[in-house]
């Protein structure tokens, strides 16, 4: 089942350095690299958000197992959450496109001080 078109060039699919993934539009913290896992889709996959309000979710039209996900701060469209499709039973899988920016662990402190 395909929700998004893939045109190649996804830079975070096989990226597993320690750090934080933030919204590319506003810089709000979304996911820790600790919640990222290898997945067969061409997009990066995560199991949980950093903050309870990191993302906002709404039902995907005619797809009960999927939710559209946007940044909890600015509303920027991020991707989808697929319920009960994570690496462990009962976990969801979040997948995202180029709406993410990565901040390496050694740069996290300076980035959060700019907020």
TrEMBL record:
Residues 1-105 form the MsrB domain. One of its GO terms (biological process) is actin filament polymerization. It catalyses: L-methionyl-[protein] + [thioredoxin]-disulfide + H2O = L-methionyl-(R)-S-oxide-[protein] + [thioredoxin]-dithiol; [thioredoxin]-disulfide + L-methionine + H2O = L-methionine (R)-S-oxide + [thioredoxin]-dithiol. It holds the Pfam family SelR. InterPro entries: Met_Sox_Rdtase_MsrB_dom, MsrB_Met_sulfoxide_reductase, Mss4-like_sf. GO terms for molecular function: actin binding; L-methionine-(R)-S-oxide reductase activity; peptide-methionine (R)-S-oxide reductase activity; zinc ion binding. Keywords: Cytoplasm, Cytoskeleton, Immunity, Innate immunity, Metal-binding, Nucleus, Oxidoreductase, Selenocysteine, Zinc. PROSITE patterns: MSRB. The keyword Nucleus applies. Its EC number is 1.8.4.12, 1.8.4.14. It is an enzyme of class 1 (oxidoreductase). The keyword Zinc-finger does not apply. Its cofactor is Zn(2+). GO terms for cellular component: actin cytoskeleton; cytoplasm; nucleus. It is found in: Cytoplasm, Cytoskeleton; Nucleus. Belongs to the MsrB Met sulfoxide reductase family. PANTHER family: METHIONINE-R-SULFOXIDE REDUCTASE B1. Methionine-sulfoxide reductase that specifically reduces methionine (R)-sulfoxide back to methionine. While in many cases, methionine oxidation is the result of random oxidation following oxidative stress, methionine oxidation is also a post-translational modification that takes place on specific residue. Acts as a regulator of actin assembly by reducing methionine (R)-sulfoxide mediated by MICALs (MICAL1, MICAL2 or MICAL3) on actin, thereby promoting filament repolymerization. Plays a role in innate immunity by reducing oxidized actin, leading to actin repolymerization in macrophages. This is Methionine-R-sulfoxide reductase B1. The gene is MSRB1.
């Amino acid at each position: 089942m395909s929700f998004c078109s893939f045109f190649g060039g996804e830079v975070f699919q096989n990226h597993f350095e320690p750090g934080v993934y933030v919204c590319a539009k506003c810089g709000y913290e979304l996911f820790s690299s600790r919640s990222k896992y290898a997945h067969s889709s061409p997009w990066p996959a995560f199991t949980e958000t950093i903050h309870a309000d990191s993302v906002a979710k709404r039902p995907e039209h005619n797809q009960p197992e999927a939710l559209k996900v946007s940044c909890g701060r600015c509303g920027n469209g991020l991707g989808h959450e697929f319920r009960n499709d994570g690496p462990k039973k009962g976990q969801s899988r979040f997948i995202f496109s180029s709406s993410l920016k990565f901040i390496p662990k050694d740069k996290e402190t300076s980035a959060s001080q700019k907020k």
